[in-house]
Amino acid sequence: MELKIEKRDWLFFLLCLIAGVLAEEAFFRDEIGISYFIFIAVFYTIFYWRFRSFSFSHQRVGYLILISIWLLAAGYYMNDTILFYALNILVIPSLVIFHLALITSPKKMEWNKLFFILYTTLKLAHGVRYAGIFIRHIAKKLNRGNNSKHNNVLKKVLIGVAIAVPFLFVVLNLLMSADAQFERLLSNIPNLFNFQAEYLFRIIIILIYTLGFFGFMQVLLQKKVQIVQKEGTYKIPQMDGVVTLTVLLLLDIVYLLFVVVQFKYFFSGTLGDGFTYAEYARRGFFELLFVTLINLTVTMGVINFTKSVLGKLKTTIRFALSLLVLSSGVLLISAFMRMSMYEDAYGFTFTRVLVTSFMIFLMVIFAYTLLKIWLDRLSLFHFYFITSLIYYAGMNVINFDQIVVDRNIERYETTGKIDIHYLNSFSSTGILGLIELYEKNPDVPGLEALLKQRKEEREYLNPDTWQSHNLMRDKAYKRLGKLELN
Fold first, then answer.
1. DSSP 66
2. CB 364: neighbour CB atoms within 10 A?
């Protein structure tokens, strides 16, 4: 593959180099904060400049993904949630790659098919290949003025250095043993090499980002599609209708029995066997959630792999699937009630609130799946992807840490019970919650001592670098400075 690099390509490479430098500054210098949002702004500015005359496709879903990317990047500045801090390091780049491949793909290509993942993966591979060819292209230009004589001399010098290294190792150790001053002089050399190693590492990171951006976007700019989707080349295997119906009926019988038990417990007002609601809530919650996810997987599999089944058998399978989905809804409600009772008894944690929100998300998924059972024209992947994206972006916008802190403070006002050490683990949001609690109830055991310790460590919330600037950490830093303790 012979490259034809024009002036605008060199200018674009220079812009990618700027993006590479910014990426290294934003992600490898200190804790990520506002730097992610600034990087995304610069990156997309460069992208839209390069593709200013390009005719984009799939723009409606593209805008949804783009808005989600901006919200997730802004989360590094707005919130201070450890879980999303770690997850978004992988989620945001994945969404950016998917978004760029989506809006530059052919308009007739269906993005909600498994094939599109293959298309995106191949575009990435072609981008890496393009970057390699570009490096060879530059190497040829640099070597054009060199002659073979100089190359031979360089090879001989390197051979001489390799031969001298063992002798130098022995001689230097002997001289260092003989003279302490000489040893002290040589001992300072590793510090210089450490500096050079760090500097070299930064250059390598910048070049990797630069070549990655440049290669991927140059490949996306090519309107020629590298891969063609052929209809009929791969047939989706189909499940036998009778076997499928048998499995579904057996599952439905089991779930109907379980549903009867759930109605007996939760609507009769009695638990039996000496269980309290809190003890009952602890039993089987995650098992119920796991069974619900299994049911969702079974439902999706039956919908996708029984398309060849027709007639009354098809209708019967639909009824059995509907019963399975409705039973799954009851399982979710049961799990939701268990979690609510457990929170009332033991308090609110990040995991419990997160799981509660996930159950609500699953209820929405099951409601749409129930419609899909009877309406073939609906697309499961399309809805699942968009709903999951909105749900995940919404979780990042909503400060879950703040919800947990507020609910625990409300619970304290009602029951007088609170775990201040758990709230302290919530970093900046937890500190703000503890300050709020102290201002209302300064007599909470251990709270004042905990805040004194936090105030002594206040400077850790105020990093010197611009990359780590975060709204919640800045707010906690200022509130601790103004806090008056006895």
1. H
2. 13
